[in-house]
């Protein structure tokens, strides 16, 4: 099949949206499809209108503060214009696969699959916020696109529930949660043994600028243990306000997965970690949590509703839940994680891997295409 794969960023680069489009691209190619990467951000007009809106207008007009340009009517109009142009250049597609809920595909004749975490409105409501009138318009724009898609895959179960409740029960069959696929390759047997035999006291933190508060929490909690052997490894940030007295902190900044040496460093940090931690208030980086668990690394994470819905109870299975933002509780849990004996730690690592070992892109893509084929066959039977 000829499949157009849409992303905001190059779908063939591992650095685009945590590597999700890249891994979809690779899996589709592996299955023998002709895949055409479509980077919406390469469109000059869409890109620079977005720069103006996101960097200027959102700052001076508070109402638009949490609305991305791609969810405005102008943004959708420009995305539709771009997609029609690409379709004329590349020829007709059998399927369009969009890794964004903000690309207007409605004037094209081929089936379209949408896959993303959630809508912008859900992200606001999930953290206890309320939508203002501009955000409500933006949310309606996204929901309108979702109603017209052939199949919509939300990567989190609670987000899936939200979509079903907001587009109408009669359209619920097109909304699916399949899995939150892991953005990592399986470890070799030697790497697995290295993980299971680990006695390190290295604590891993992964996240961009919006996870800065989590960095502070982890450094403060680790330092409260007064243990000079503890090392906090921070990926995605260059510094922290907290200056520890006892533990050591290493900052690695952004590691580009498209560069072999930086990807090797990124992987080595997971291999050497005692645990990964994210207790940021509001949301806790689902992709890095899944990546850690898949790589036999236990996690300490806030009891986020989406994480709990996917993975269930933590203790004894994949790590520990910790109250979001609670440094004192995190410090106690870190001590427990460090003090696990060899057998306890080994069992926890294996259990963490088993929780998400089947959450693969092979399963995700296979399920999506089978679902789409069944819908096509059902329509033929009706006709």
Strand order of the largest sheet: 2-1-3-4-5-6
Mean pLDDT: 93
The best one-word shape is globular
> According to CATH, what is the class of the largest domain?
Alpha Beta
According to CATH, what is the topology of the largest domain? Answer: Rossmann fold
Main sheet makeup: 6 strands, parallel
Low-confidence stretches: none
**Estimated helix fraction:** 40-55%
Write up this protein.
There is one protein chain. This protein is of the alpha/beta class and 383 residues long. It folds into two domains: 203 residues, Rossmann fold, CATH 3.40.50.2000; 168 residues, Glycogen Phosphorylase B (Rossmann fold), CATH 3.40.50.2000. It is built from 14 helices and twelve strands. The strands form two sheets. It has a six-stranded parallel β-sheet with strand order 2-1-3-4-5-6, with helices on both faces. Strand 5, helix 6 and strand 6 form a beta-alpha-beta unit. Helix 2 runs antiparallel to helix 3, helix 8 crosses helix 12 and helix 10 packs across helix 13. The longest helix has 22 residues. It starts with a strand and ends with a helix. The model has no long low-confidence stretch (mean pLDDT 93).
List the helices and strands and how they pair.
Elements: E1 2-7, H1 20-30, E2 34-39, H2 44-60, H3 73-90, E3 95-98, E4 112-116, H4 120-126, H5 133-148, E5 151-154, H6 157-167, E6 175-176, H7 189-196, E7 202-206, H8 212-223, E8 231-235, E9 248-251, H9 260-271, E10 275-278, H10 286-294, E11 299-301, H11 305-311, E12 319-321, H12 327-339, H13 342-356, H14 361-382
Parallel strand pairs: 1-2, 1-3, 3-4, 4-5, 5-6, 7-8, 7-10, 8-9, 10-11, 11-12
Helix pairs in contact: 2-3, 8-12, 10-13
């Amino acid at each position: 099949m000829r499949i157009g794969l849409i992303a905001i960023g190059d779908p063939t680069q591992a650095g685009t949206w945590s590597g999700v489009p890249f891994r979809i691209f690779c899996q589709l190619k592996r299955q023998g499809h002709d895949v055409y990467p479509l980077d919406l951000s390469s469109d000059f007009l869409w890109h620079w209108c977005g720069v103006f809106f996101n960097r200027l207008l959102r700052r001076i007009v508070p109402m638009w503060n949490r609305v991305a340009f791609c969810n405005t009517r102008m943004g959708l109009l420009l995305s539709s214009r771009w997609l029609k142009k690409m379709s004329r250049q590349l020829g007709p597609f059998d399927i369009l696969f969009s890794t964004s809920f903000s690309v207007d595909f409605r004037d094209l004749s081929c089936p379209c699959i949408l896959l993303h975490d959630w809508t912008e409105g859900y992200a606001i409501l999930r953290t206890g916020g309320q939508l203002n009138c501009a955000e409500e318009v933006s949310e309606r724009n996204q929901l309108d696109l979702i109603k017209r898609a052939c199949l919509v895959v939300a990567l989190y179960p609670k987000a899936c529930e939200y979509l079903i409740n907001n587009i109408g029960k009669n359209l619920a069959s097109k909304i699916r949660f399949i899995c939150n696929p892991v953005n990592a390759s399986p470890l070799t047997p030697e790497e697995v043994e290295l993980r299971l035999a680990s006695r390190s006291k290295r604590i891993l933190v992964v996240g961009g600028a919006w996870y800065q508060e989590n960095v502070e929490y982890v450094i403060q909690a680790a330092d409260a243990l007064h243990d000079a052997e503890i090392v906090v490894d921070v990926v995605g940030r260059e510094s922290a306000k907290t200056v520890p007295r006892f533990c050591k902190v290493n900052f690695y900044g952004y590691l580009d997965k498209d560069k072999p040496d930086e990807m090797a460093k990124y992987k080595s940090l997971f291999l050497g970690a005692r645990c990964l931690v994210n207790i940021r208030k509001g949301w806790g980086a689902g992709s890095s949590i899944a990546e850690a668990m898949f790589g036999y690394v236990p996690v300490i994470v806030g009891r986020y509703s989406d994480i709990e819905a996917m993975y269930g109870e933590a203790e004894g299975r994949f790590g520990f839940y910790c109250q979001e933002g609670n440094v004192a509780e995190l410090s106690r849990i870190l001590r427990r994680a460090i003090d696990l004996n060899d057998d306890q730690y080994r069992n926890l690592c294996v259990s963490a891997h088993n929780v998400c070992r089947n959450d693969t892109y092979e399963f995700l893509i296979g399920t999506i295409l089978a679902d789409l084929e069944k819908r096509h066959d059902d329509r033929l039977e009706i006709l």
